[in-house]
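Dear support,

I submitted the protein below through the web form. The confirmation email said the job was done, but the results page showed an empty box. After a refresh the structure appeared. I'm attaching both so you can tell me whether what I see now is the final result or a partial one.
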Amino acid sequence: MSLDVLFRPESVAVIGASRTPGKVGHDILANLVQDGFPGVIVPVNPAVDTLFDLPCYASLAAWGKEIDLTVIVVPRAMVLAAIEDSIKAKTKAIIVITAGFRETGPEGLAEEQKIAALCQRHNVRVLGPNCLGLINTEARLNASFAGRMPEPGGISIFSQSGALCTAMLDLAAGRHLGLAKLISIGNKADISEVDLLSYLAHDEQTKVIVGYLEDIATGNNFVKAAEEAATRKPVIILKSGTTAAGLKAAASHTGVLAGVDTAYGAAFKRSGVVRADTFDALFDYATALSMQPLPKGNRILIITNAGGPGTMAADAVEKAGMEVAELDRNTATALRAQLPQAASVGNPIDVLGDADPERYVAAIEAAQDDPSVDAILVILTPQAMTRPAETAIAIARALDGSKPVVASFMGGRDVMPGRKELSAAGLPDYESPERAVSALKGMVEYAAWKQRPPRLVTRFRVNRRRVERIISRRQRTGMLQLGEVKGKDILGAYGFRVQDGALACTTEEAVEIAERIGYPVAMKIVSPNIVHKSDLGGVMLNMANGEAVSDAYDLMMLKIRKRVPDALIEGIYVEQMAKKGLEIIIGMTRDPQFGPMLMFGLGGIFVEVMKDVTFHLAPITEEEAIQMLKSTRSYAMLEGKRGHKGVDITAIASGLQRISQLTTDFPQILELDINPFIVGEFGTEPVVADARMTLAPLPEEGEKHGI
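What the results page shows now:
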């Protein structure tokens, strides 16, 4: 059912309307009346005859007509009856302001679920409970107990926190940001962020969507709705809190490294959401994205009247992964003719401390015409001769709208007149260059996402039936930890290269296998109880002959039985030694909300110490896989810089895509590690040196295995 009736009702009833100022029922009714809602307003309170010169009814039945929207502000014990009365009045949407439901415990949750089920049966949409209400400036609808109706504009806000709704209203007013809609979603008994993203994506008044969330109930639906919305307009979200479901014990490197918030970051990246890390950043991004065009690239030009702030800005640009633009030679020549001899015409362009508005205009006009500049940052510091207000007016008049421009008028009282003029002109202004650069980064990343190529997920030819048999057998027997032997068996079925090898249960078998596959060989203990084999002496490499293999077998068995006496030893895996190459880790951990998350990182210190890893939601395209590699700090090693030979990057991307297909095909796989995955120069085939997986139990076995 469309949410139009929620935002554009022709009639609104307030059940629990009050004549006492300060009470929620009074303030909501006052907002509806005083902010000019043009439709019918029906106060409901059996103890009052009139409110705000409107007749007050004892019940909706006494009103006797249909109602579009009902706002319920009564004690929790009376909410269900109020909803039943609303349904009888043919209401199409209900806002439950009342608190005391799921946030109070099991009893409140049960009552909330009863309300949601009742409304669902009657095709009635519910906002809340435990919410502030909503505002639609276009319809002059203020069905909330917020303190003010904001000025109309293009930003729509939804928030899981009612208190943050009022803070956002106040901040928007302070920054002269007009709002289209404000929605407090509360407990999300029915209407959630997914519904609002889908609705606001098609709302003509909404140009930018801003959200605050503490949790996301349905991960896959969120990604789809957010991606659809972000394709049409910027979506900026501040996410706080973590999900208890994500706090499971992880057995793999990938699971340990993922962390409880990683899935949200991966989901936002995939769907094009601009993620704000702080409350300030939320509005910094919203200001820039609502006021300025998107940049075509990441080359930033800085204009300043002081060297220090210009250097700060340049540092911030580079730290943010953007480029300090290199001016075209013709631009530099033209600027030298217009600026004093002492001015710098590099980047930053230093127009000097005594700069008048005309110098700023000359620099901005030159930057707008320069094809090597994608975005402009204008910095002003208050010198004795600075004219902030006149400079701001001149800057605004000089803009042609071809490139995004943000400002940082640094200081307090002296620059305030200039900041007011910037705000009036719709030019984003920030207190520091770093915050301005951060806003530009958000714009650059969103623009890059919008320019991404179409998502084409490759499907490889694989032996799916073999994997089905292995997984089914292990789930039936309850052996949910797959070590190297079965792990490689599965990976081989999905096109990974594994070295020739076999499991030996005696010394003689070990030697026989080694003779058959050829020396040198590697030998590894196989046990479902041993995760880190090398730490316990369970790995021997480069065994060159039968005697070495025989001795190694006996020694490994002796060590393992002594160090882990209770471990189940299945045998020792003997395989061909892989050629030397760069050791990386690729893997997957399955998030309970968003599904399989793929991981990439270099082996050794890069993963264990530096935590230089990256994640992406499956399914993944080749382009997305390559972007995963590029997003790590150690990417230069893959390219062949810093004294290292380059490796076949496309082969790593292919490995990630094959894991993506495997774990999408088989949701029974909870965790997967290929560690190490040995990659060589371009044209060589990577080798799975070791692997392990964790499976989910069969549904009826869940309690037995404690998962």
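Response: this is the final, complete result; the empty box was a page-load delay. The two ends are 38 Å apart (CA to CA).
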